[in-house]
Design brief:
single chain; about 250 residues; alpha/beta; Rossmann fold; 2 domains; five-stranded parallel sheet; 12 helices; about 10% strand; binds adenosine-5'-diphosphate; binds magnesium ion
């Protein structure tokens, strides 16, 4: 074994000990490139460290997306705006800049089933996760079940804290299932904790006047709506369901 091989092997060992996996993986390629192109040591090191940094950044983004618990990975590029003309595309693109989060505003997608509320909410969530903003998607019913269980186990405060810490929380499908008085109080507690501190994105198929029937106590329904709507962008979507579009256009032979 000559000394050059030894120092190469030692370098590989050092990279491995320092957990610089990508630098170790790309070492041969970067050395080959540098020799061939007479690259300076600084430029070679820059290339090598870039590999490590890019991969780490990519992995962090993937971890944030995973923590987002999105129902699917559909993004804005997958959304056909021509199908839903009541949606102002510029408004959605503006939301995707996440400007609304700077002053902890909320967003509500309101409309009937199948018009793309969950798709758009998820797209915005993924955009946030890609910027490594802590984001989490949860269905309203599941959220309430979790808070309920936490209360039974005397862990409500911890659970509320958990849901308050996300910079962006997406609460999907408010109003699809009835919420009883006790559950409504738990929901209110979370909304109150996030109010003016963090942004929350909601989807619902029930217009605001109808929230009295979603939440049994009108006072509580008002208190919840008051906090949600105080600083909020409301996107009302009126249109056909994308899910059944193909079926609707089929004619009876
Ligand atoms: P909602 O939450 O309003 O009930 P979804 O967002 O779940 O509706 O949409 C239903 C399905 O149709 C999803 O698979 C979604 O990706 C798709 N979809 C809805 N609207 C569009 C659209 N305009 N362009 C592309 N896909 C759409
Ligand atoms: Mg939905």
């Amino acid at each position: 074994m000559n000394s050059a091989t030894t120092s190469y092997q030692q370098l590989q060992q050092n990279l491995s000990d320092l957990k610089l996996e990508q630098m170790s993986l790309h070492l041969n390629e970067v050395v080959d490139f540098s020799v061939r192109n007479q690259v300076t040591l600084i430029d070679a090191l820059l290339k090598l460290t870039d590999h490590e940094l890019h991969t780490r950044e990519y992995n962090r983004i993937q971890a944030t997306i995973k923590a987002g618990a999105f129902p699917h990975l559909k993004e804005l590029k997958d959304f056909d705006f021509t199908f839903q003309p009541t949606i102002n595309q510029q408004q959605i693109l503006d939301l995707a800049t996440l400007r609304f989060m700077e002053d902890n505003k909320n967003v509500i997608f309101l409309g009937p089933s199948g018009v793309g509320k969950t798709h758009l909410a998820t797209s915005i969530g993924i955009t946030a996760a890609k910027r490594r903003i802590s984001t989490h998607f949860v269905k309203c019913h599941d959220l309430i079940q979790q808070l309920k269980r936490a209360k039974l186990e005397n862990k409500l405060e911890r659970r509320l804290k958990h849901y308050t810490k996300y910079r962006l929380l997406i609460i999907d499908e408010i109003g699809y299932l009835p919420i009883d008085a006790e559950d409504a109080k738990l929901f209110f507690q979370l909304i109150d904790l996030r109010y003016e501190k963090q942004s929350t994105l909601f989807t619902t198929n029930v217009n605001f006047k109808g929230w009295d029937s979603v939440f049994p106590e009108p006072k509580l329904a008002n208190a919840i709506l008051d906090r949600i709507l105080h600083h909020a962008y409301v996107i009302s979507i009126a249109g056909e369901s994308y899910r059944i579009q193909n079926h609707l256009s089929q004619e009876i032979p």
